[in-house]
Amino acid sequence: MEIKKQIEELVLNAKNEILTIKTMNELNDLKAKYLGKTSPFAQLMSQMKTLSNEEKPLFGQAVNEGKNQIASLFDGFRLELEQKAIEEKLKNEAVDVTLPGVNFSKGSKHLLSKTIEEIEDLFIGMGYSVKEGPEIESDLYNFEMLNLPKGHPARDMQDTFYITEETLLRTHTSPVQVRTMLEAGGKKPIKIICPGKVYRRDDDDLTHSHQFTQIEALVVDEDVTIADLKGTLLVLAQKMFGEERKIRLRPSYFPFTEPSVEVDVSCGQCGGKGCSMCKQTGWIEILGAGMVNNAVLEAAGYDSTKYQGFALGMGIERIAILKHGIDDIRAFYINDLRFNRQFK
Ligand code: DAH
Fold this sequence. Notes:
This protein is of the alpha+beta class. Helix content is 40%, strand content 19%. The longest helix is centred in the first third of the chain and has 38 residues, at 55-92. 3,4-dihydroxyphenylalanine is lined by residues 172, 174, 216, 254, 257, 288-290, 311-313.
């Protein structure tokens, strides 16, 4: 039959043309050419009306079969194209999980911050809260209310940066004691520590820095004794330096405490026998402390017949120096990464 041949030819042509297709657009164009309104099939269908009633069904069936064949060729090829597109995408966006990763260098805490946090954690665990005070302080709080009136010889121990006659860079964290007691209005018990920067007119060298860091502790309550202070100091020394350490209190003098003590910890290098580190004494001085002087309590509004307190003040750099065997205090401030990275 003439029409069958014609359709077979159409299908063959379509097949050959499809094989040259590379994109979806090309596929859509070709599909329109073979199956669209102006396609050869549409033209064949328009000839239907010229045929006899017997011929019509056979003709229609042949045309439809041809159309279906071509349509399924297109469908198959569409799937192939889609698959190819996916494979292409996967290939281009592939991640090689075996490649070495990018190294982001992470920062870490400075040894000073770490030491402060360690001491804070220890005291917070004992029920203390953390207070802060200003670095620009008044002579009144830094000295006078701590029982260091103008002209007092003990002022010489703390060479001071004065800003005006009455304002200065605080020489220690002890003024926070005064501020806290005043805030408490002479009534409430107090249990605080105060970390912060302090300033002295020192020439910088291996052991001195014009700016360094202290932590102050203050406890005020009824029935506070020197035994409480001693117990606290022992916990502090053993947690910071090791459970095997001992402490020793030596009588000392601070205007704001009475009695005052200098606190030594047994030498970790020789265990107390004496070595170069402890200058053959077996002991290393770590901080100053004492029972809050009645004059300081009274000046801040506390009735010293009812309230007592103890206080201590330590240099953080000194604690870290002893703990880690650092030989130059300036290493804390110059930010040499070779130093900082040792304490990650
Ligand atoms: N403020 C003293 C200083 O910087 C350290 C100190 C000693 C603080 C005894 C205290 C204390 O609270 O009781 O030299």
